[in-house]
Design goal:
heterodimer, A: 293 residues, mainly alpha, Ammonium transporter fold, 14 helices, 0% strand, globular, B: 366 residues, alpha/beta, Rossmann fold, 4-stranded antiparallel sheet, binds iron/sulfur cluster
């Protein structure tokens, strides 16, 4: 086979990165609307505060590019990492501390990643949360804090509920998923399976506890955001189809279980981190017979 | 389940529909390959005369010396025969004979077969060799297929062509009405359908009960059964993005490929490279001292391109998913998985799809 420079499928890794970029920017548009325009229109924030989501977008992108530049990593990839991380944090994150924390966390995880492959985004996300925990830990924006709006299930689905700056909308996460689906290299089985087992797990918890918050969390975009964007990221997933399916199922189920103890905004990222540490295990366990036959 | 895909190719590379020929080489070269040599220097030989063990002379002429050459059969010594341009045959040929059941059973083992499949599909892009065999010798093919069908009435006779082979498709569509027992199968432009096992699986035919012949093999058998002729020439597609006049050309076996290219092909200026038997599953060759052997079907002349730098695997799994045997090419470098590498048929699909441009053949050689 001599085809590599002469004959190749028209798309490559770059096309996947472009798809991630378009998909995440779509979520940022909604984030800007929800945490900026909508609040400004209702006079909850000043004109300057309208641009806070844009500030977080710019800082996330800038810091990630800086880390990529310093560690000689792929700029495009780190831009995506930055935008994913920024989209998932709270609007209340300290604007001065955030760039510093992001830089330190991303730099350290990326540095370790160069020595031994680790899930950079989910680990950085965990560092950020732990650091932010030291301060006020809340995902509520101004209107949510004062309970100005009373949202029904459909509003929650649209993304008006509590969540990360640009990750609260389940509708937009689904749209982003469809954008990514067009790319053949996107690991679609992971979010599908993770969502399936998360819904199943949450439904079971609801049946056991009769706590309706498990049903409300099903409409929160942040968990699905982590499944669609973070669980599928480039280097720390199983490689075989069966491996991807079981990895997705585990992530979803553990996310549902963790939601009994931890805030819903963190469970997806935490379970992705846990299962992404040794992604090959999923391949090996399932493929052992086949590979050695 | 096998996933078939269509390869994305340059639609501007079109092979001419006119057959060219280059049948008068000054000399031909036949690979010696450890077999017995039945002739001596300066002996005169005729077409069809056994000169090496199992090798018949494709020209008439005088035996010269042994020379070092290379071909798809390998590097080594090749017997040079100088052409006398008289085309003298060992046996009287040309008269058409009626084929008997015993003749067919001598060349095809159709015992217990339910299906006879004529495969006129070219797998490699920019290659039209098998398609041309059917196109050029169309009447002969139908005649022999019809005779086979009459001799073996229980046999299902299939003719398989690609939907993109428009001339063959339209001819067959209009003529097969006269041969109601010959079944036409028009298949999509999927890669690998040119290979027996994949074609049969695509058609849903039992491998054990199906006899498949390529159009080229079928034509050779036709010549042998009908005219008593042995194979002395073959069709070869010469095309590629550096070839100004892509064509199918009839050449004598043993001809120097360089001479054929020099005589017939206009090549673009600039850095070029040559591929024998296609880009996907073929190999890069040097034209110097390269001899046309029976297993050569095409020569692609391509503008030399820089190999993209392979990047870190993004674990998309598509290489394994598209692999016809679902092998794990990313493990080929690991000695523990040699048994997998041995099953690889070098079809090139894994490298074709890999989004980070891993060249698996090279990788596994490391
Ligand atoms: S070249 Fe080998 S490993 Fe790659 S797809 Fe073809 S058979 Fe599979
Ligand atoms: S196709 Fe390439 S990137 Fe995808 S799993 Fe195979 S080697 Fe890795």
């Amino acid at each position: 086979m001599m085809n590599v420079p002469y004959l190749h499928y028209p798309k490559d890794e770059r096309s996947l990165k472009k798809a991630y970029l378009i998909a995440i920017l779509l979520l940022w548009v909604f984030g800007f609307y929800k945490n900026g325009i909508l609040l400004y229109q209702n006079d909850y924030i000043s004109f300057l505060d309208l641009f806070i989501p844009i500030y977080f977008l710019g800082v996330s992108a800038g810091v990630s590019l800086l880390v990529a530049f310093l560690l000689k990593q792929n700029l495009f990839l780190y831009l995506i990492y930055g935008l994913i991380l920024g989209a998932s944090i709270s609007i209340n994150t300290n604007m001065i501390l955030y760039p510093i924390l992001l830089f330190v966390a991303l730099f350290i995880t990326s540095y370790i990643d160069q020595k031994r492959s680790i899930p950079v985004v989910s680990l950085t996300r965990l560092f950020l949360v732990l650091a932010i925990l030291v301060q006020t830990y809340s995902y509520l924006n101004v209107s949510e804090k004062i309970g100005a709006f009373n949202y029904d299930y459909f509003d929650l689905f649209l993304g008006y509920g509590v969540g990360g700056i640009a990750s609260s909308s389940l509708l937009f996460v689904i749209l982003a998923f469809f954008i990514l689906l067009f790319n053949p290299f996107y690991k679609r089985m992971i979010p599908v399976m993770a969502s399936f087992s998360f819904i199943l797990g949450s439904a079971l918890l609801f049946l056991i506890t009769r706590d309706s918050s498990y049903i409300t969390t099903l409409l929160n975009g942040t968990v699905y955001f982590s499944f669609v964007f973070v669980a599928t990221l480039f280097y720390n997933t199983p490689i075989t189809k069966k491996g991807m399916i079981s990895y997705g199922l585990c992530i979803g189920l553990v996310s549902a279980l963790l939601s009994a103890f931890l805030p819903i905004y963190e469970v997806g990222f935490l379970s992705i981190f846990l299962f992404s540490l040794f992604p090959s295990i999923f391949d090996q366990i399932l493929q052992k017979k086949h590979l050695h036959s | 389940m096998q996933k078939f895909i269509e390869l994305k190719k340059d639609e501007n590379i079109l092979v001419s529909s006119m057959l060219e020929s280059s049948l008068q080489p000054d000399a031909i070269y036949l690979p010696v390959q450890n077999g017995k040599i039945f002739i001596h220097q300066n002996d005169c030989v005729k077409i069809g005369e056994e000169v090496l063990e199992g090798v018949l002379s494709p020209i008439s002429g005088t035996v010269k010396s042994l020379k070092r050459m290379h071909s798809l059969a390998g590097d080594g010594y090749y017997l040079e025969i100088a052409n006398d341009f008289e085309e003298r045959y060992l046996k009287e040929v040309g008269k058409r004979r009626k084929i008997k059941k015993e003749d067919i059973l001598k060349v095809f083992n159709l015992d217990g077969m339910k299906n006879f499949v004529l495969n006129a599909i070219d797998d490699e892009i920019y290659v039209s060799t098998q398609n041309f065999y059917l196109y050029l010798y169309y009447d002969a093919f139908l005649e022999l297929l019809d005779e086979i069908e009459q001799i073996f009435p229980d046999l299902n006779v299939y003719v398989c062509v690609k939907a993109s082979s428009s001339e063959n498709v339209s001819k067959l569509m209009s003529d097969l009405g006269m041969y109601p027992n010959i079944i036409l199968k028009i298949v999509p432009d999927y890669y690998l359908l040119g290979r027996k096992q994949f074609l049969l699986s695509y058609l849903g035919l039992d491998v054990e009960k199906s006899f498949v012949l390529s159009a080229g093999e079928f034509y050779d058998i036709y010549n042998y059964l009908k005219r008593g002729r042995t194979k002395s020439d073959l069709l070869l597609t010469i095309s590629g993005d550096a070839c100004k006049n892509p064509m199918v050309i009839q050449v004598k076996i043993g001809t120097l490929l360089k001479d054929v290219v020099k005589e017939k092909i206009e090549i673009l200026d600039g850095d070029i490279c040559y591929f024998a038997n296609g880009i996907m599953s073929g190999q890069e060759i040097s034209l110097d001292s390269f001899v046309v052997t029976t297993d050569l079907q095409s020569l692609l002349i391509m503008k030399k391109k820089k190999e993209p730098k392979a990047r870190k695997c993004i674990r998309c799994g598509l290489c394994s998913e598209l692999c016809p045997f679902h092998l794990h090419p990313y493990l080929f470098g690991n000695p523990k998985y040699q048994h997998e590498k041995e099953r690889c048929i070098n079809c090139g699909l894994c490298s074709y799809i890999c989004p980070v441009y891993i060249h698996f053949y090279k990788e596994s050689e490391k």
